[in-house]
Amino acid sequence: MTIEVERADSKRLDGLDGTWDGQVDGSPMGTLFHRWDALRVIEDHSDATLHPLVGFKGQEPVGVFPVFELRKGPVTTAFSPPPGMGVPSLGPVLVNYRKLKQRRFEKRNNRFVEASFDWIEAHLDPNYFHVVSPKGYDDVRPFQWNDFDVSPRYTYDIDLSAGEEALIRSMTRDARKSIRNTPEESYTIERRGDAGLEYVLGRINARYDDGDGGLVLDEGYVADLRDVLGPDTLLVYVAEVDDRPVSGRLTLHGGDRVTLWQGSPKPDVDVDVPINDVLNWRSMVDGIAAGRSTCNFVGANTRHLCRYKSKYNPTAVQYFEIERGTRAMNVVSDLYRRFG
């Protein structure tokens, strides 16, 4: 039986007692950014049009693939995720596949991806197409067989399942010293609401303004994400020393994982506290308390940042950057790598 791909018009999938989010949450490949309301927020705050593609084998859903269309004059591009929105990955999510033998899995993966390509070519015909795959989507051969360039990328996962003591023992001496020897009374870390979000984003965006890289995130965008995901899913932390905020972080809780999404900017004042070490530790401890088994330390592709992150004894996990387009679109690719 062939796989048919169509554009979903609502979070409830046609003809089925199921929802888009049910497919996303039921797959190891699904992320918080794949959820329907999060996708709509991303669309509302970008210049892109969302096409939430879903594949069916008969009445059985086999995958979802959110694609964002960007048009600039005569040029059409397709992204998953769109650039500049701080979304680490998106791409296809396969569902109902874990009991399949390898041959049937490969056939389903290939047919779903190719059916998605057929829909995209028929309706969008993009000059350039860029995908960053979610962790767990490891078989990217259907993209390679369709003339996409595929590059391995890396992120870091930290195992939380053994508990606090085993976790801290696994870290480097420097990390253990920073966490254990810093008096708790020398700093405070609290979850905050809108005011905390304004502060954290202000510090993140100031880092960009100072020429230290990164991207600018609109406060309204992140606030809307927090509204649809919930304050216990998108957590805002603010760290203070001497009653003055010096750093902060945005952390995501979903499924079995904590994601250190944005933040931990270098303090803009001199402090004697290794504030970002204790801030990271607080995020991990809260993850353990919430029953999460993994902490994702987003990004392991920048050498000087890897030197810092590796002291927490993470595991490097592979995902993929996938693109296809003409040479004239190289500038789009370069901009994506810089700001995506």
Automatic annotation (TrEMBL):
GO terms for molecular function: acyltransferase activity. Keywords: Acyltransferase, Transferase. Its EC number is 2.3.1.-. It holds the Pfam family Acetyltransf_6. InterPro entries: Acyl_CoA_acyltransferase (IPR016181), BioF2-like_GNAT_dom (IPR038740), PG_Glycine_Bridge_Synth (IPR050644). It comes from the Archaea. Residues 169-309 form the BioF2-like acetyltransferase domain. PANTHER family: LIPID II:GLYCINE GLYCYLTRANSFERASE (PTHR36174:SF1). This is GNAT family N-acetyltransferase. It comes from Halorubrum rubrum.
